[in-house]
Design a protein that fits this description.
- The radius of gyration is 16 Å and the shape is globular.
- The protein is built from three helices and nine strands.
- It has a six-stranded antiparallel sheet with strand order 1-2-3-4-6-5, covered by helices on one side. Strands 7-8-9 form a three-stranded antiparallel sheet.
- It is of the alpha+beta class.
- The two termini are about 30 Å apart.
- The protein has helices at about 55-65, 95-105, 110-130; strands at about 5-10, 10-20, 25-30, 35-45, 75-80, 85-90, 95, 140-145, 150-154.
């Protein structure tokens, strides 16, 4: 299993686990060559042998790398290290929409509209490139503070 401090593919030092799901584990990592924090998603080992998972992962990574929008995570890299496939994106400090809803017990109508408009704008850009997000849910919507906006969506 992966451990904090491990270096993936000689480039990404895992520094903190920040999420885990059915598809993989996400870590904050330090990209040694660029001296920056990134997010590294390591696909679960057992999925490498599941039919169609890896070709779909590679196809989705390449499509994600082509998308440019302020509310879409920047995809930097993907690859295979030992038997693990990984995806590297920008690291976004903050929390998920799911976390915010649980913490606050809900959100105001104006906050919901503000967040929803950003999500729709990002989806519009993806759809223009024939990319469909297949796992859109509050836990996959990241909220961060950017340019004075405390509910900036990624």
């Amino acid at each position: 299993m992966d451990a904090i401090g491990d270096i993936i593919d000689g480039r990404y030092r895992l520094t903190e686990e920040i999420g885990r799901g059915g598809y993989g584990t996400v870590y904050r990592a330090h990209q040694v060559s660029m001296n920056r924090n990134v997010a590294v998603k390591l696909i679960h080992t057992h999925l490498a042998h599941a039919s169609g998972v890896i070709p779909r992962f590679i196809r989705e990574a390449r499509l994600a790398a082509k998308l440019t929008h302020p509310n879409i995570l920047v995809c930097y890299d993907f690859g295979q290290y030992q038997e693990r496939f990984y995806l590297v994106t920008e690291f976004v400090p903050g929390h998920s929409l799911s976390h915010m809803l649980k913490e606050n017990g809900g959100i105001t109508q104006s906050t919901a509209c503000h967040i929803g408009m950003q999500i729709c704008s990002a989806l519009e850009t993806a759809h223009e490139q024939n990319v469909i997000h297949r796992d859109l849910k509050p836990s996959n919507i990241l909220l961060t503070r950017r340019a004075g906006d405390e509910h900036f969506v990624k």
